[in-house]
Amino acid sequence: MTTSIPTSVTSTAAGFQPAFKPVTTKDRHACALAAVAMLASTTLDDVWQKAEELGLPKSGPYVHVLDGDFLAKLLAQYSWVATVWKECEKPSQLPDLCIVMVDYDPEWEVGRYGVFHRAKGSHDAKFVEYVIDPTASADRLVRTDLNVLVPSWYIGVHPMGKTSSTTAKK
Q1: Is residue 62 exposed (0-12), middle (13-18) or buried (19+ Cβ within 10 Å)?
Q2: Can you tell me the distance from the alpha carbon of 126 to that of 120, in angstroms, rounded to the nearest whole number?
Q3: Is omega for the bond preceding 95 within 30 degrees of 0, making it cis?
Q4: Element (H, E) at 33
């Protein structure tokens, strides 16, 4: 399996096509696994199976298991390296590819996971920033209105054997 961070997305004047195929879930506990499935270009069922092999219980809640260390182990199964969780306040602080937590509730320490990607558009070479939100309705699955989906935390990802690169500004 070859993993890489896409540096561009197919775009036209009317819009763009995300570089990662969206994976959806209605299970509010499975959005982290859906994010891994998108990065791995595989099915949610495949990720569930690998996660269970790594110790994820067959029924939730999963919050006590799905921490940064577990996600790193799971991503490694698909040749991705993960950073630790890092706090952020705006999309410009994010690396070019990461699992991002949005709608974070600091009191409960929970949020929704998605995949953030920043790449040049093929139409005009401007950077496109978007989040694929696996629990959203079909019309809101791919979001570019990041002022509404404010990121709170992220785990950067890059292919094994390569160092991460970013255009993020602090």
Answers
A1: middle
A2: 5
A3: no
A4: helix 31-40
